[in-house]
Amino acid sequence: MKDLVSIIIPTYNRAYLIRHTLESVQNQTYPNWECLVIDDGSEDETEKILHEISKKDGRFKYLKRPEDRKKGAACCRNIGLENCQGSFIQYLDSDDIIAANKLEVHVSILKNMKELTLATCKWGRFYSKSDEVIIHDKMPTYFSTNHPIELLNIFGNTSSYLPVHSFFTTIALSRKAGKWNENLSNNDDGEYFTRIILISSSVQFSKNTWVLYRAGANNRVSNLERREQAKSYIKGWKIVDNFLKSYSNKKEHTLIKYAARNLYNQLKNSKNKDLIKKETEFFSKRRNSIFDFFLKVLYKLKIWKPLRKLSL
After folding, report:
1. 132 CB neighbour count, 10 Å cutoff
2. What pLDDT score was predicted for residue 129?
3. pTM of the predicted model over 0.90
4. Domain boundaries, the chain
């Protein structure tokens, strides 16, 4: 369907949170959407809630991950891609929020751009217990570019990122990037959006909309005490390293230097610190402390623009 947006939401035991997320979908000023919620085997009242909501609004579609498919958010997102009908893709986690004008703003941008254009927006955090909302108005990732590698440069040089739901893609871009990697239990989003960014024709940032990330719900490094999760983070970054080498012919991209240092610092005092020795080659790529300090100073001084061009 022309200009239909497919919103893809993986979920697992989020019955106590998902209504809030789906309300932010239902409140969209852009009405031409479908929302596919893919259940990863919830044991709470998720199915009951989704049946109730979908009866009232047929744009919501409830899907269950088949038992013969691999468990995990990556597989659920792939199931969403296999069943969606839209020209555009909006990924959303089942505990996060998108602004009411998110789809309208991003559709208006992408419908007039090349089909491999990627859109982004501002983001912030909200705190359930206090109802506090913080939207980051100035971040180094807030820019448009005809050279998408600059976004990955900024991620590495300023130790920053964009949450999954801040991105908005065309179905053409998604198909060219390929499926989510179902062999990654962690860092599947970083691996996937590295592919998306690298094949994008341009990145278009909008300051006129935003998304909210639920603070405390999905700490990006909180699972490193679990061995398989820690190994997945490392595996994901090694895959990203190979992508970046193929794209730029650089021995070590700044994003990998940052990731290796960040993971090293997280693991060195954990029960999985032996992984550092087992992955010596990867961790040898980490940025040295002096250079890391230098980049942090530039970040605090908000000297961001030159850091888009360089892989330091």
Report:
1. 10
2. 67
3. yes
4. 5-214, 222-309
Beta-bridge partner residues of 210: 122
Number of Cβ atoms within 10 Å of the Cβ of 177: 19
| Own/partner pairs, 48-55, CB within 8 angstroms, 24+ separation | 48/15, 49/15, 49/18, 49/19, 50/18, 53/19, 53/22
Torsion sign, CA atoms 92, 87, 34, 69: negative
5-214 placed in CATH 3.50.50.60: no
Confidence band (pLDDT; 50, 70, 90) for 135?
Answer: very high
